[in-house]
């Protein structure tokens, strides 16, 4: 296994191959253990049609084990853990700084916010970014959804801008849609990502390669056709 990159493997096996405190920051979104199968983005609203998704490994029936958190804290210096309010008893430390992602959902049955536990000793921070069904913050540049738990690239970019340090290698143990990895590339961070489900790994890898193709054009202006230049 190479030192950096995106891997189709169990994160527990993957983390076991890295030394203590190898990663400057882990940004993770593990299963919450709330019983969703992942096959639909459920809603009781008549205005929104639920989107079908292929069931993902684990089906969110169980939250991460204490062994998972032991490994996560072993290999990373700092951590941001989404959904920690669902399994806080399994995290061995208190947090001074929770992150609140306000999804600007309006009047519907979806959660207004998502919470993330952090290892940082700063004030609680709030990030507002619309992410509601077909409605997104930037409708002129919508992200195609490929995973039931997909989060916007902009959210990860904000986290990196605020909490990562120059030279950090970023860890994501449950990559899902690859939004985190796209954000790392956008911000110039090396990363290691794991996704155990082959179906979602292939989708995420395709998304990552498509994003990289766009980066290559902008990294090498001479590759842009004359018809696309101003």
TrEMBL record:
EC number: 2.1.1.-
Broadest EC class assigned to this enzyme: transferase
Gene3D superfamilies recorded: Vaccinia Virus protein VP39
Gene Ontology biological-process annotations: DNA restriction-modification system; methylation
Domain annotation DNA methylase N-4/N-6: ranges: 135-206
Keyword Transferase: yes
Keywords: Methyltransferase, Restriction system, Transferase
A molecular function GO annotation: N-methyltransferase activity
InterPro entries the record matches: DNA_methylase_N4/N6, DNA_methylase_N6_adenine_CS, RM_Methyltransferase, SAM-dependent_MTases_sf
Family: Belongs to the N(4)/N(6)-methyltransferase family.
Protein name (Swiss-Prot/TrEMBL): Methyltransferase
Source organism of the structure: Enterocloster bolteae
Species classification: Bacteria, Bacillati, Bacillota, Clostridia, Lachnospirales
